[in-house]
């Protein structure tokens, strides 16, 4: 049995689990080779989305004046799962740590801005990304553009300050949920 722990706003978690179940149902009809190819395609799509589809060119962040802008959007994960990036955005903790480090070392950058719109995500990798933000030498700010809940709020709290872009932004919703998946029947059937 595999356990995955999430620090994620409840309605977003419910939606993610429903979407994941739908994908797993479709995947169960595929051959082993088709399933492996599908999984690799989804993983690569999620990885590419993580940096290149954010419109940052060859940098891990956008430059706006002297600010490095690092988007933290969608579900937060240590590494992409087969269904990440299919229905919604995903950001890896590795990306957040890497982009923060590069921005901190960039002589053109005077301040690091994290743009949050995330319901939270998994626990694995969260603390390391938080320590990367907390350990920055340059001033940092977490700007909320929509939602900053649970694991996202943990990350945002490590910046020098948190700012809401609108009175309707949702900041908060702390909690942890666990997903327990019993795959013994599927594993037995797959051989």
Structure overview:
This protein is an alpha/beta fold and 191 residues long. Helix content is 38%, strand content 30%. It has a single domain, classed as Alpha-Beta Complex (2-enoyl-CoA Hydratase, Chain A, domain 1), CATH 3.90.226. It has helices at 10-27, 32-51, 93-105, 126-134, 151-156, 184-190, and strands spanning 2-8, 62-64, 67-77, 90-92, 111-122, 140-149, 162-164, 170-172, 177-181. Strands 1, 2, 3, 4, 5, 6, 7, 8 and 9 form a nine-stranded mixed sheet that branches. Strand 2 and strand 3 form a beta hairpin.
Find the count of extended strands (DSSP E, 2+ residues). 9
Question: How would you name the oligomeric state of the polypeptide chains in this document?
Answer: single chain
Which fold name corresponds to the CATH topology?
2-enoyl-CoA Hydratase, Chain A, domain 1
Query: Sheet bearing the most strands, described?
Result: 9 strands, mixed
Which whole number gives the mean pLDDT? 81
Can you name the CATH architecture? Alpha-Beta Complex
Query: Rg from C-alpha positions?
Result: 18 Å
* Helix and strand pattern: EHHEEEHEHEHEEEH
Poorly predicted regions: 48-55
Helix content: 25-40%
Measured distance between first and last alpha carbons: 16 Å
**Which secondary-structure class do the elements indicate?**
alpha/beta
- When the domains are counted, the total is 1
Number of helices in the DSSP assignment: 6
Q: Tell me, what's the shape?
A: elongated
CATH class: Alpha Beta
**In percent terms, what proportion of residues is strand?**
25-35%
């Amino acid at each position: 049995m595999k356990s995955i722990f999430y620090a994620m706003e409840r309605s977003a978690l419910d939606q993610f689990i429903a979407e994941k179940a739908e994908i797993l149902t479709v995947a169960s009809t595929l051959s082993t080779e088709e399933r492996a190819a599908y999984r690799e395609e989804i993983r690569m799509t999620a990885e590419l989305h993580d940096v290149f589809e954010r419109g940052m060119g060859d940098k891990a962040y956008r430059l706006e004046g002297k600010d490095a802008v690092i988007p933290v959007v969608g579900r937060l994960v240590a590494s992409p799962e087969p269904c990440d990036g299919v229905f919604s955005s995903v950001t890896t903790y590795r990306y957040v740590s890497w982009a923060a480090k590069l921005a901190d070392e960039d002589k053109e950058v005077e301040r690091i801005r994290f743009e949050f719109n995330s319901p939270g995500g998994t626990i694995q990798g969260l603390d390391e990304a938080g320590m990367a933000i907390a350990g920055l030498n340059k001033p940092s700010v977490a700007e909320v553009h929509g939602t900053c809940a649970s694991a996202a709020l943990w990350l945002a709290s490590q910046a020098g300050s948190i700012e809401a872009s609108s009175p309707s932004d949702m900041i908060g919703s702390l909690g942890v949920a666990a997903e327990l998946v019993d795959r013994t029947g599927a594993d037995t059937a797959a051989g």
